[in-house]
Amino acid sequence: RDTLLQVLCLSAFLSLPHARAEPIRYSVAEEGESGSVVANVAEDAGLAPAQLSARRARLASEDGRQHFRLDRGTGRLVVAERLDREELCGQSATCTLPFELLLANPLQFFRVEVAVEDINDHSPVFPEEQVTFKIPETSNPGSRFPLEGARDLDVGSNSIQAYSIAPQNEYFSVSYGSRIKGKKYVELVLEKPLDREEEAEVGFSLIAVDGGSPPRSGTTQIRIVVLDANDNAPVFTQERYIGQVLENAVEGSVVLSVVATDRDAGPNGEVSYQFSQAVGQSHSLFAIDAVTGEIRLTKPLDFEAAENHELSVRATDGGGLSAMCKVLVEVVDVNDNAPEVVVSSFSSPLPENALPGTVVALFTVRDRDAGANGKISCALEDQLLFSLRPAYKNYYELVTVSTLDREETARYTLAVTAADAGSPPLTTTQTFTVDISDVNDNVPVFNQTSYTMYVRENNVPTVLVGAVSASDADEGPNAKVTYSLAPAHPAERPPCSCISVNSENGQVFVLRPLDYEQVRQIEVLVSASDAGTPPLSANVTVRLVVVDENDNAPLVLYPSQDSSPASSELVPKSSEAGYLVTKVVAVDADSGQNSWLSYHLLRATDPGLFAVGAQSGEVRLRRPVTERDAVKQKLVVLGARQRAATAVSHRCTERRLPDDLFNHFVGLRLRPLPRIHGSLHLAWLTRAAAGTLPHAYCYEISLTTGSGNSEFKFLKPILPSLPPQHSGMGRGTGDEQEFSRGPVTMEDVAPDSPGTLSAEQFNSLSFN
Questions:
Q1: Given 3-state DSSP classes, what are the helix, strand and coil percentages for the chain, each rounded to the nearest 5?
Q2: Which H/E stretch holds residue 437?
Q3: Number of compact structural domains in the chain
């Protein structure tokens, strides 16, 4: 309502006589800053500055917008807000902002017109940032392709003045101008025939430039798509494709991709792929993607079966044109095969006397892999007696390097390891079990260095006395030991026929009875021989000791049994107690305890007159001889063993001798006594003392050993016969007294071995 009021007032003012006929005109450039001075409107209107305030001067416009304001103090007209010509006037060639300067008291107005001058503040702008044209490659030169021009909000010389192409190209140029009724146009002109296969798209910039200073420009991108005609067949990027794939690649792995291009476009340039033919069964191992040309595995590969595969691939476009290429797939070896050990020959068992360098086995190694994966090295593990020796190519010999000993090791387990040079390496171990066959290289060995066996004399025939045993470290026949008697020297015959050895078990037998008194011991060589070829043997000494039995009676050496006349002993009358009358000496052919002798008085005419040394056999006086003793004394000496020898002694007194001499004549005779109380043959005593020994005493002396019977001979008397001497004491020849038997020991005698008494031991015995 206020605006309407202002318009009515303005109309009234215009009708006033004080209005100025010509407007006051000013010009101002657009985009001026607020407060910019346009002009001094008071001065141009012929008004004093003081009147402006006094008359309430103000500005009024038809649209009510206040683009300007009046400075009442100075009368200047200033810009009230930013002026945008394009916003205020659009594309009009001129842009004028009219308003009135009103004064009151009296009412007066002035028309003011301010022309807003254009400045080049806008650049040309295309309606699209990119314009695409699809032009058949068969289009003729000179063909025009219109496009929408750029728009510039500025006017006049600041508007678009020209178009250009950047960069320049040989195919297109730009044409622009005004048609009838002033309508402007812009066109692209084809200058040269297009070839889509050579250049499927042509791109450049279309630039619009205005006439400002400096000029402004606008750009749009022109994209020319050349439409295809099927005038080209597909072409592979390579005539021959080579791909590599690991032999352990899984199914579905991509081997490679073939690429064929068709310079045509659209269906004419759409290429599909397929296998046209395959060599052998290769096509069954691969599949090709019809769109991408990607070749994949359909089955596992094996380098050892085929190192490469050759395929033929056909590429066909949508128009039916096609091309061919070859694809070579190389299978890359993977160390997936362990070395193989193939034994050509193997010798087992091996004789233990095989010479060093003897070939035990010949084998070859191989690996189906290639390169380093197929390079093989062999090693023999932990053996000092064997080694590997290269033969030729991949052949190796397993040979001995030192002598073998079956008795130490009868079987060798040899591990030959073949390893390839792959990463990681694969290995194969071949085991050779070498048995060592026996060679007769060991002699039998007895379990003792010598043997001592014992047999009692008078043995039964073929009695077993012991056994020898020998072992042989060899085996089989080489270890089968047989026994036999061997001569001391090879040329001799076995010395003893009374001993036999069982050839199988080594038992030793005595074939006939032996007599200790004839043979104390026998030494023989027993040979142990194996059954090898040639046989080996060893000897051992077997000593057979004959153990004595008490099968011999003692033999009286003195007094002699054969003396004639009978031996006599004279005892002086003055002899004191302990006087040695005589000594009975006896021996026993047995040994050991069987030969130990002891002497005892069995009977005596005067038991108290004489005594016999139990070990020495000495007959001594127990007391002095008196006149009352009989001139002849009889003594029976008894042995304590089952077998005994008896000596009879007569003591005679010669009356014609002086009184201070009292001699006894003792006669001794051996009498075998099966038992202690055997009868005595005393005829020799009667003959010895015929008429000369009126008072004779007779004694029986029995000498004992072990069991057994022997005849003993007496030595002759050592002392001469003395004349008889009467004694005042005697009991007559018939007076006898029997003594009890008692045990006698000889602890001072120790034999070499049980049942054996050596000659040295016997000679060392004391009879005193």
A1: 10, 40, 50
A2: strand 427-437
A3: 6
Residue 156 has which token pair?
A: 């006049």
Residues 209 and 140 in one domain: yes
| Structure letter (DSSP) for residue 195 | -
- State CA 648 to chain mean position distance: 98
SS (H, E, C) 656-683: CCCCCCCCCCCCCCEEECCCCCCCCCCH
Model pLDDT, residue 334: 86
> Is residue 40 in some structural domain?
yes
Closest alpha carbon to 97 in 32, 178, 146:
32
Q: How confident is the model over 58-93, as pLDDT tens digits?
A: 888 877 788 888 888 888 888 878 877 777 787 777
DSSP letter for 266, please: G
Q: Residue 75: which domain range? A: 2-117
Q: What does the pLDDT read at residue 661?
A: 37
3-class secondary structure, 61: coil
Choosing from 486, 513, 547, the residue where a domain stops is: 547
Phi, psi for 13 (deg, rounded to 5): -65, -35
pLDDT of residue 686: 37
Q: Are 744 and 600 in contact (CB under 8 A)?
A: yes
Q: Pull the structure tokens for residue 197.
A: 């296969």
- Coil, helix or strand for 510? strand
Tally of residues, the chain: 768
Q: Which helix (H) or strand (E) holds 272?
A: strand 272-278
Residue 17 has pLDDT above 90, yes or no: no
Least confident range from 129-143, 593-607, 684-698: namely 684-698
In this prediction, residue 459 carries a pLDDT of 93
The answer to whether residues 103 and 57 touch, using CB atoms and an 8 Å cutoff, is yes
| pTM flag (> 0.70) | no
The rounded distance, in Å, linking the Cα atoms of 661 and 549 is: 48
Say yes or no: 325 and 255 in one domain: yes
Report yes or no on 289 lying in a domain.
yes
607: its two tokens: 């038991």
| Secondary structure E strands in 155-307 | 160-166, 172-178, 184-190, 201-210, 217-227, 235-236, 240-246, 254-257, 260-261, 272-278, 286-288, 294-297
- The answer to whether residues 619 and 610 touch, using CB atoms and an 8 Å cutoff, is yes
Neighbours of 454 (CB within 10 A): 16
